[in-house]
Amino acid sequence: MQLKKYTDYGLRVLMYLGCQPKEHRANVRLICEVFNLSANHVNKVVHHLAKLELIATRRGKHGGFSLAKPIESIRLDYVVRQLEGDEEWIECRTPECVALPACKLNSIVGEGKALFYQHLSQFTVADLVADNKTELQQLFVVNLQA
Fold it and tell me: Which keywords accompany this UniProt record (predicted)?
């Protein structure tokens, strides 16, 4: 399994914001420069994160976005589930699989998915940056200067 780029970008945005001072506002251009990403994709991700009320956005000359919640309260299972969409990992019904009546693949993979999200539920965005916040801050700045 591989997470969508959309989810990866969303987690990067949250990590970046989690390493910044509380009053810091980022913008799409800055995030794109730091991570070398497409503005089109980042715009969509930022919009989604704002709809989830994970980031607060402000328009205008001094606009941008910042975290709307403490990073300790943003659980990874929630973020990944929301950005990935909570679809089945194995699609047995469209088209309907001939093996469906006797197959255990969907239930086994479904149990793995549940364990995956259960594992992620133990972590927050704070856990992604807690032990390496200073190093990440330096990398984010170095990236801009490169």
Answer: DNA-binding
Residues 6+ apart with CB under 8 A from 8: none
pLDDT digits (tens, 9 = 90+) for 77-98: 999 999 998 887 878 877 888 8
Which tokens hold the place of 47? Answer: 């919009």
Domain boundaries, the chain: 5-145
> How many angstroms separate the CA atoms of 41 and 90, rounded?
26
Cβ pair 52, 42 in contact under 8 A: no
Q: How many CA atoms are closer than 13 Å to the CA of 132, on its beta-carbon side?
A: 10
CATH class of 5-145: mainly alpha
CA–CA distance, 144 with 135 (Å, rounded to integer): 14
Cα–Cα distance, 113 to 42 (Å, whole number) = 26
